[in-house]
Amino acid sequence: MHITVVGAGLSGPLLAQGLRRAGIDVLVHERDEPDRPDQGYRIAIAPEGDLALRSCLPPSRYQRVLDTVGKRGSGWRVLDPQLRIVQETLVPTPPDEERTGRHLTVDRQTLRRILLDGLDVRYRAPFERYELLPGDRVRAHFGDGTSVETDLLVGADGTHSRVRPQLLPDAEIVELGQTEIFGKTRLTGEARRLAPPVALDGFCVITGPDGRFMPLAAHEFRNGGDDYLMWVVAGPSELFPAELSTMDKSDRREHAARLVADWHPSLAALVRLGDPATVGSTTIRTAKPVPHWETVPVTLLGDAAHTMVPQGTSAAVALRDAGLLCRRITERGDRPLLDSVAAYETEMLEYGFAEVARSLASASS
Question: How open is the CA angle 51-322-329, to the nearest 5 degrees?
């Protein structure tokens, strides 16, 4: 059996690791250059994501994940623009994490490197189209001029998926009218003095009355690493220039700093200390639910299937997808592959779009 994965974010490589561990031939295609510094920062992984990592990774590689996680904070807080605490939720350590899964905070780039280690990855190879073949096979074509015939094509290529529009031409991704600029600031002595103490002890978000908001959280590696503060400046899209995505990274960083210049002065200062190489921008989107389609040898994982508002759960749901699809494929016995894929899709759509709805409701409250 041969399986082709489109997208080398988190869920695609995790699926590939699990399949490879089971002796299945798998190739990953990625449209971008390897290891770009603006492809992620500190993210939270809920227990279902941890369980998926455990199920797909060899024990030694899973231990590498645990060795590189961030220090656990005490909870999350909402602050006003002058850094006064408005709301606080403390999160105790669950009593039986070994069985129920751990709450992890990880550096996305570090986790991605671990997940990609040992895989066959073809970079600078954007997906273009596929064609269904007789015998429940599929041929995928890529922008580097190559094509591959495979038993299953998996679109794990995110919100901007190129696989989804061909598989589900009526699926809708909805812009919510919000834009964000994000980056990292090294946790130097100056940054620690400027940062709100609660940003060094978990996750916090500063919210203003006009729709602007600013998530802040430190990532301090448990076992040594380049500690940093993750920051996001977000708000109504009309506050951002139309050419934002093509602006120089330093200019984007400066625009983010100006957007919070009327808040506590330490916030703009923290942004201006950010490393320009890590600065990126995006708009906030959500997916409309789709009914289960007729299963073919093409399927979707993560944001390619169920884009959701960032509320700290999307990474875990995507990893859960990878673990579930891997399990359905590797434990199928004599069942046809497409029966296993259909079972995965049915379950994934149910919990995936339930989380889409929950994240949208949480962001709106």
Answer: 105
Q: For residue 244, what are its two tokens?
A: 């934002």
Can you give the C-alpha Rg of the chain in angstroms? 21
pTM of the model: 0.92
- d(C-alpha 177, C-alpha 35), whole Å: 29
Beta-strand ranges (E) seen in 108-236 are 121-122, 127-133, 137-142, 147-150, 152-155, 173-186, 202-207, 213-219, 228-236
Is the Cβ–Cβ distance between 271 and 231 less than 8 Å? yes
- The answer to whether 146 and 283 have CB atoms below 8 angstroms apart is no
| pLDDT tens profile 8-41 | 999 999 999 999 999 999 999 999 888 776 677 8
What are the helix (H) ranges across 297-336?
303-306, 314-330
* Cβ proximity of 299 and 345 under 8 Å: yes
In the chain the domains, ranked by start, together with CATH numbers, are 2-32+123-172+288-364 (3.50.50.60), 176-285 (3.30.9.30)
CA distance 53 to 105: 13
pLDDT tens for each residue of 234-283: 999 999 999 998 999 999 999 999 999 999 999 999 999 999 999 999 99
Strand partners, 25: 2
| Contact yes or no for 256/185 (Cβ under 8 A) | no
- Residue 282 bridge partners (DSSP): 180
How do residues 172-224 score in pLDDT, each as one tens digit? 999 999 999 999 999 999 999 999 999 999 899 999 999 999 999 999 998 87
Sequence-distant (≥ 6) Cβ neighbours of residue 106 within 8 angstroms: 42, 43, 45, 65, 68, 69, 70
Average pLDDT over residues 133-150: 96
- 269 token code pair: 């200062």
Residues in contact with 213: Cβ distance below 8 Å, sequence separation at least 6, in sequence order = 205, 206, 207, 234, 235
